[in-house]
Amino acid sequence: MALLRCCLFIILFLLGFAESQPFTHPINHTDLQVAIGDMRAKSYYGFAMLLQMLNGTTAQPIRDFTFLMPDDKQLSSSSIFVDEVGEFLLKHAIPMPLHFNDLSHFPTGTLVPSGNSSRMIRIYNRGKRDFFVNNAKIVSANVCLNSVIKCHGVDAIIDYDN
Ligand SMILES: *[C@@H]1O[C@H](CO)[C@@H](O)[C@H](O)[C@H]1NC(C)=O
Ligand SMILES: *[C@@H]1O[C@H](CO)[C@@H](O)[C@H](O)[C@H]1NC(C)=O
Ligand SMILES: *[C@@H]1O[C@H](CO)[C@@H](O)[C@H](O)[C@H]1NC(C)=O
Q1: Which atom of ligand 2 is nearest to the CA of 52?
Q2: What is the third-level CATH fold of 2-154?
Q3: What is the pLDDT at residue 161?
């Protein structure tokens, strides 16, 4: 039963993903602003700034996503070139808005797409206090509470094997 529920969830998830692919719907700016407000309220200033840098450009990973946010200390110690901001954000996103409660249904080993469909995020789930997305641990769940966009704080820049 648990397995069935999990599979259903993944199917729903992938449907949502397929739907999100054409990048056609424009972002709801109010919603983005609300999400950025929530990020700033929890001191994720760097990540909020990266999102704002892309607002209004055509390279928009800014949709109804789940963002996985390294904190300012991690961001400031990594070199992100201006023309890589979009790619960086896609690597720190899941193309569907997910509350931590939704994420917590994924068993360890589940692969979820990142904002870049050619890169997958591996879930390591041993409960709320021990939940990893690839190498990064979720340390601050549900930071974005007031918008459709969801976001969670992580303790590292997300790495991909390839
Ligand atoms: C945009 O987002 C805001 C805040 O979440 C919401 O109140 C509003 O209804 C949304 N507008 C559209 C057109 O979806
Ligand atoms: C994004 O840009 C739109 C229009 O260009 C603007 O109305 C909105 O306030 C901007 N949002 C943020 C969060 O900067
Ligand atoms: C997606 O990831 C691949 C590498 O796996 C990279 O070459 C490509 O530029 C990325 N695309 C975007 C839009 O970031």
Answers
A1: 14
A2: FAS1 domain (2.30.180)
A3: 81
